[in-house]
Design a protein that fits this description.
alpha+beta, Rossmann fold, OB fold (Dihydrolipoamide Acetyltransferase, E2P), 2 domains, 6-stranded mixed sheet, 5-stranded antiparallel sheet, 20 strands, binds adenosine-5'-triphosphate, iron transport, Transp-assoc_OB_typ2
């Protein structure tokens, strides 16, 4: 039994298709990211799951039950929005207990639950503060605690880390990841940040123009994208056109041996980190360094070979200089062919 299943969900606004046949199964306790650029329909998908928007077509199951007619508060799916939407005139404790108060729970039960959640999100002693007396990370933890107060089956996080600065973002990613694992709560996280999706997801659904283009584990999505559009969204790769013929790959930059006996015209994708630079011998393809960007633990290069720019990411200690002649080695057996 999947915890959530979307079957051919469609949604239009003002006659414009925003979601086009979205299908997705999320297993119990799984953490899945919806990854895509701004405007591709990620938030709309979350709102449909939570019941804040109605889909035009398709079916939505939560725990094997069709929830299309189930109201928001009974779906067992809660959203935490990007800007947290805390009630400014309520204390932290009142914010966290809000859903329970609405459900007319007894005061002692609310207090007990709020105390437990304050402890869980490491905000003990801050229950009497107001939201504007909290840091960004603390506000986010209040929002998470408020969402968890109603014991949801599904947690929906909309760009949870985008309002936090870099250091805090890493800390909160780790905090929420650990909390999610501890509670084993099925989670869908929306992000446009590929590195974030790669780092914290069990699986990633890449969404482009209202369609899910690929659903896979992070390393599969990165290493074996099924299309150039998914590959492009995941990073700056190299694409090299050529013909495979009898174990050789004839390209615009040179001829390579390859373990592939097919005969076809392809575009090969090769990652910048899978290309190696060397100037200790005259072997390999000769090129000229046209850009060097030093980033401490890695160096970004652009290299001109014939009329083609190749991107390389090196983690070697050796730093090559601009305009230096260089030999590059690339193994197309690590490439993906489209
Ligand atoms: N209530 C609405 N009425 C009309 N159009 C809407 C409505 N809500 C969203 N849209 C449009 O639907 C498209 C998808 O919006 P959505 O918020 O789902 O995108 P997103 O992928 O979450 O992007 P972002 O990260 O920028 O929020 C956008 O073009 C948006 O303008």
């Amino acid at each position: 039994m999947s915890q959530i299943e979307l079957k051919n969900i469609n949604k239009s606004f003002d006659g414009k298709t925003i979601l086009n046949n979205i299908s997705l199964k999320v297993e119990e306790g799984e953490r899945i990211s919806l990854l895509g650029p701004s405007g591709c329909g990620k938030t709309t998908t979350l709102k449909i799951i939570a019941g804040l928007l109605k889909n035009d077509k398709g079916q939505l199951l939560i725990g094997d039950k069709d929830v299309s007619k189930v109201p928001v508060e009974k779906r067992g799916a809660v959203i935490v929005f990007q800007d947290y939407l805390l009630f400014p005139h309520m204390t932290v404790a009142e914010n966290i207990g809000f859903g329970l108060k609405m459900a007319k729970k007894n005061k002692n039960i609310i207090k007990e639950k709020v105390d437990e959640l304050l402890k869980l999100v490491k905000l003990e002693g801050l229950g009497d503060r107001y939201p504007d007396e909290l840091s960004g990370g603390q506000k986010q933890r209040v929002a998470i605690a408020r969402a968890l107060a109603v014991d949801p089956k599904v947690l929906l996080l909309d760009e949870p880390f985008s309002n936090l600065d870099t250091g805090l973002r890493d800390e909160m990613r780790e905090f929420i990841s650990n909390l999610q694992r501890k509670l084993n709560i099925t989670t869908i996280l929306v992000t446009h940040d590929k590195e974030e999706a790669l780092m914290i997801s069990d699986r990633i659904a890449v969404m482009l123009n209202g369609e899910i283009k690929q659903i896979d584990e992070p390393s599969e999505i990165y290493k074996h994208p099924k299309s150039i559009e998914v590959a492009n969204f995941l990073g700056n790769r190299n694409y090299i056109k050529g013909n495979i013929k009898e174990g050789k790959f004839e390209t615009e930059i040179g001829l390579f041996n390859i373990d592939n006996r097919e005969q076809k015209e392809v575009i090969a994708m090769i990652n910048p980190e899978d290309i190696y630079l060397d100037n200790s011998s005259n072997e390999g393809l000769e090129g000229t360094i046209t850009e060097v960007r030093y980033a401490g633990d890695r160096i970004y290069y652009k290299i001109k070979i014939k009329n083609k720019q190749i991107r390389v990411i090196s983690n070697s200690d050796k730093v090559y200089r601009l305009n230096e002649k260089i030999f590059i080695h690339m193994d197309f057996n690590n490439g993906v062919f489209f």
